[in-house]
């Protein structure tokens, strides 16, 4: 019986309330949860932290432009099969020549095709009841990849290549499947229809403060205040690629090595801007808009 | 039940199919739906497939389940304050709303009630246990006790409520829904003491137990009152707010084909790894060369507001997909040349553009409105030539579609070049139609 308890996050991970509810709905229904949202909003963290917190087996499939269902589900090892099927002949030849030692197939039997099926993360997760399966950044996959998964998702079944073995799992044992996407391409409607959809909105300052506290509990409030102010200001000025949670955390990681006064000074001077701003045009824009008016900015961002 | 839901939601352009209804039904069987707020959340997970659908979905939900209709330009609060549902809810809940609440607070309480989920109720009940433990030793105070009793009563009702069986719940929903449709449904309401939402946090809050502080109500408020989330109206003319939605529409421009061919290098590589066992590897034929010509009318004063946003759109597209983007300008209509720069000083002949690869996708952007004499033979001829050379061609018009028929030249150009509104939806359709054309 898979874990159907409502999970609201762990000590290290702050799970947004709406997300926690969607995740629970998806698990209860035995459907995958499709999470979309800006990069750096913690989409991938959810299944990782959930598996760690609940001590569940985790299978990850990072998607890429070359992803296919074979890698994801299972492939047939032709080389081993060929080798093993030749071994019997080789062994009899060796016997004829008076050699005693025999070649071994390592317990595999060429008659049994299932021995040569190499299972990918999906097949492994389906064989391990109550596990967690993460399909990361599915939007990077070729378009047919999500389409190829439709049957497996709605019927909870995989058919193994060559051996024809059917791997099915009951609704109760269905692994918690989390699929993330950055929306670089639209996913097929039929695919989305089989998922519970959740869009992560960018966290607001109060939530962000809690997220920071989970990561760096020791950073002083004053530093966080100033950093958040600068951070949300940068997000507001309409950059091509607005900084995200991940970048903010990296930035704090850098400044927190200094004393409070130094750190605040560094934040206000936007030192380590490279962790926040990732394109040249944005960098120029920030310099034009903010660094040229340091007085104005300092006034705004100093907490009273 | 919910037979009429797909129809109502389709009015808001939210497709709800049989599968979605079956999933909803299953969610009810699995005890996921106990309150109106639960329906909102579950249904949202099932039918919303895009952040842009959030606003319309919430509108449809308020219309269908609460009979609260938002009119054009309304904020959610306006619509709620006007509705009968809210009025009834207020009557039923007057006792827990003191005089010290203003209209906004009351609307927020209403929203919290509507969006209260069974998770919230559980939290309160759990909190209640803790609270009991903490308060065990101060029961001797009279005032505390009366408050306590009241609280116990309302929390007990919550607990009763959460024990309802599915049948009872469905029965109640049906009953309430029938009453909502009729104008004079008295007695129990969807919302209110007897309705779907048992005692909100108003009473409990006094004692430091608060439900749904960050729950669904807040989200709905945000979705419907914050420009960032809503309205991204897909039919709205392109602007800074929906430029990303338009970009998503443009993504369809990268074609996918089902045509397959033998992938020789991969076959050889994999075969070698398999120790000489060659199994043909098939790959999809891809058309990754994406070439776009953008021809913008930057002449008239009427076009000014759109030029920047169109350029932002295509510039963003350029950074997303590696491709070839050429931009030209014209004033009102093209004759035998278009201009290379926005100030229209350097020009290039149409003949030269027509010599380009027919795989270019051509987008004209303009209102196609001008004096009739301006659209002369040369101009019409140029459009015809362009259309003949570039099969994938579209005209994006920032004027709302309903005005097109009033302008003669617009109608003429529309006959020459397929015309679509310059809205995310329009761009999407334009791209779809382009993709259908094979060279």
Layout: helices, strands, pairs:
The complex is a heterodimer of chains A (304) and B (439).
Chain A: H1 17-29, E1 33-37, H2 45-54, E2 58-62, H3 69-72, E3 74-76, H4 78-96, E4 117-119, H5 121-127, E5 132-136, H6 144-155, E6 157-159, E7 166-168, E8 176-181, H7 189-193, E9 196-200, H8 205-215, H9 221-236, H10 245-255, H11 260-268, H12 280-291, H13 294-301
Parallel strand pairs in A: 1-8, 1-9, 2-5, 5-8
Antiparallel strand pairs in A: 3-4, 6-7
Chain B: H1 5-11, H2 18-29, H3 36-47, H4 54-66, H5 76-82, H6 84-92, H7 103-114, H8 118-135, H9 142-162, H10 166-181, H11 201-205, H12 216-225, H13 243-251, E1 256-262, H14 264-273, E2 282-286, E3 291-297, H15 304-320, E4 324-330, E5 337-339, E6 347-349, H16 350-354, E7 361-365, H17 377-389, E8 393-397, H18 401-404, H19 408-416, E9 419-421, H20 424-436
Parallel strand pairs in B: 3-4, 3-7, 7-8, 8-9
Antiparallel strand pairs in B: 1-2, 5-6
Helix pairs in contact in B: 1-4, 2-3, 3-4, 7-12, 8-9, 13-15, 13-20
**How big a fraction of the residues of chain B is strand?**
5-15%
Total number of β-strand segments of chain B?
9
Report strand order across the widest sheet of chain A: 2-5-8-1-9
Distance between the termini of chain A: 54 Å
Radius of gyration of chain A: 26 Å
Beta strands of chain A, count: 9
What is the CATH topology descriptor of the largest domain in chain A? Rossmann fold
Helix content of chain A: 40-55%
Mean pLDDT of chain A: 83
Structural class of chain B: alpha/beta
Q: Using the alpha-carbon principal axes, give the shape of chain B.
A: flat
Oligomer: heterodimer
Q: H/E series of chain B, N to C? A: HHHHHHHHHHHHHEHEEHEEEHEHEHHEH
Main β-sheet, spatial strand arrangement of chain B:
4-3-7-8-9
* CATH architectural name of the largest domain in chain A: 3-Layer(aba) Sandwich
